Amino acid sequence: MNGDAGVGENEGPVSIFDGDSATKWCVGNETPTAEWKMTEAVTVNYYYFTTANDAPERNPAGWVLYGSADGSTWTELSKVEGATLPTEFFTDSEQYKVENPQSFQFYKLEITAIAEPGKGLLQFSELKLFQSAK
Questions:
Q1: What is the greatest pairwise CA distance in the chain?
Q2: Mean pLDDT across 94-123
């Protein structure tokens, strides 16, 4: 897992996949990026974000999800702008669908906007990917 470092000791990008909504990725950057490698190629069909424990103004509001076979050449899978995640803490967002699902081993998430720009921080608790093995 690679990504922008978290502002706290336990607030790095690995937190978005730890299955624990009590942890979060909190970044001192409104447009961070995280990249990860799956153990095998999978097809992501849809996904959810889970909000964190405070400050809903830091929720993602825009992002791009990419897939790659080699970790170098990226294919855009999902682009969302103007999203409104729940303001309640530890709550799943609506389902976001991958319009053209393909099988990849590498994935990248680029956050392009937060709920209230100018706050200087991005945060969310989990990124839940729903996938089928290929």
A1: 41
A2: 96
| DSSP state for residue 92 in the 8-state scheme | B
With tokens 């990124």, the residue in question is 127
What sign results for the dihedral spanned by CA atoms 34, 78, 125, 82? positive
The structural domains of the chain, ordered by start, are 2-133 (2.60.120.260)
pTM, rounded to two decimals: 0.94
CA dihedral 49, 50, 54, 59 (to 10 degrees): 10
Q: Name residue, tokens 């959810």.
A: 48
Asked if pLDDT for residue 134 goes beyond 80, the answer is no
Listed residue (75, 72, 55) closest to 116, CA to CA: 55
For residue 28 the two structure tokens come to 């001192």
Of 90, 88, 109, 87, the closest CA to residue 98 belongs to 109
